[in-house]
Amino acid sequence: MISTPRFLQKLLVTALVASGVAHAAPLPQAFTDQLNSLYPSVESLYQDLHRSPELAFNEHQTAAKLAALAKGLGFEVTTGVGGTGVVAILRNGPGPTVMLRTEIDGLPVLEKTGLAFASTVTTKNAAGETTPVMHACGHDLHMAAWFGTAKLMADNRKAWSGTLMLVGQPAEETVSGAAAMLKDGLFTRFPKPDYALSMHDDASGPSGVIMYHAGAFRASSDVVNITMFGQGGHGAVPHETRDPIVMAARLVLALQTLISRENNPLDPVVITVGSIQGGTVANIIPDQVKLQLSVRTFKPEVRKRVLASIAREAKGEAIAAGAPKEPLVEIKQGTDSVYNDPELIGRMVKVVQGAVGPDFVKEMPSKMTSEDFSQYGLQPGVKAILLHVGAVEASRLAAATKAGQPLPGTHSPQWAPDFKPTVINTIKAETAILLDLFAEKK
């Protein structure tokens, strides 16, 4: 990853958008007319996917649906890549190879949208527990757009030349599906893409507004599990114990100083203690407490330092409390930060402006949420960009902003994107970008 100062990234993007490096031609009218005719099928697919979500690495029916659709369009389709992943290849003469990815998994969330096609699915999770399932992050919308774009590209092969690679990726919500597909030969068994593209819906923007950010865009994500060991005993005689609950409480506060006093304020870091488990009743001091942390960073060097410092703080609190043994610190590395190449972003902004109109293309800030799409751009020779698309009806978003009342966002049981304008502009943007990239000569 090349680290470019933020002000230079903005200058580069601005210069490229203003220059003639990229074409601002509108999407051909034939594509727009075809999209209008195609829309009912896209909406029907979305509703079907929404009412039948599946959890990570269990997306068997979802993958089968995408595979059947791609086969029907003339793609060479392979299933079971990286577990439940789908790879569809359309070879259309000489030119670059471009990958369009969609995620296919849902979340363990009980849907509360009230939609006529709301999910009522329940399933067993990895622990064998019954859990509800919902497409609470918009992956159903992404898949519907993926199909719509594939259909336009397949029906207009005379308009482009190259190899289109469609990827239906499992387990994005657990940030493990991209790595699983790469390990299973995604870029060795199949053509290695010159470019990789993905889109994600977003609750912070008006419906259909394509949003971009050059440079580090989405944060890396790691999970840290910590077990603090103490010496249990009666709650009435705490002096005869070594209380791990107190150790854990002090650790929660100490961890925040890693951000406020050890980290450069210009290098964003988030440490969230999402779970503390210890004890059974009020008058018993337990002998151990378990904490689960989510850690988000952008820079690899910051990530390494923060994870090491978390382990240091945990050990320090144990020593200070006279604990009988060192805490157990387990780091489960998740995924790396998404990095959008500034030059490619500048070029694509101009292209998307031509497809959806300048008023529907906006710069957005980076986000501390994570996306394992990052793994594709880390592969040598692959330029990858992740764009977002606003998915909230404009007047509703404006009213909520004015009132200072946040609306339900992704991962909420009430998340329901404003589908039609969002998916139409997503398809337009994806198609325009693909056409531009395929215009290159190799």
Question: What is the typical, i.e. mean, pLDDT?
Answer: 95
CATH homologous superfamily of the largest domain, by name?
Answer: Zn peptidases
Give the SSE order as H and E letters.
HHHEEEEEHEHEEEEEHEEEHEEHEHEHH
How many domain units? 2
Helicity range: 25-40%
Keywords: Hydrolase, Signal
Signal peptide: 1-24
Pfam families: M20_dimer, Peptidase_M20
Domain Peptidase M20 dimerisation: 224-317
List its traits.
single chain, 442 residues, alpha+beta, Aminopeptidase, Alpha-Beta Plaits, eight-stranded mixed β-sheet, four-stranded antiparallel β-sheet, 11 helices, 18 strands, 36% helix, Peptidase_M20, Peptidase_M20_dimer
